[in-house]
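Quick start: read one record
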Amino acid sequence: MQQALLEAKKAFQKDEVPVGAIVVMQDQIIGKGYNQVELLQDATAHAEIIALTSAFQFIGGKYLPEATLYVTVEPCLMCAGALYWSKIGKIIYGAADEKNGFKKHCPHSPFHPKTIIEQGLLAMDCANLMKDFFKLKR
């Protein structure tokens, strides 16, 4: 999660919502990303999507059942759909996102049935980065 936080800090420095993500397989980072919605003028350029695309390119395939995604904030429903189709083995996220997270919009898990979900890893660090960002915006 420390590496995902570094990615989120890159987003913060570029005036993007500070979410970072990394994909790990066999103790190796195979994909990483941070929000680039403003930079790319693309509503789908979320950290998770960018990290997944990077991981797919790294392995030369479209499924990640042996991989783990670390993401600083609870994935939105769009990202949850992409994670579903990736068949990722595990998702670990830091801070909850009560406004835009998948839990708000989906009463059941939107992830692949074999995907393991863990929450709360470095949650305070992840949440504080988001709070600091939005304090600057107000």
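The chain has a mean pLDDT of 97.
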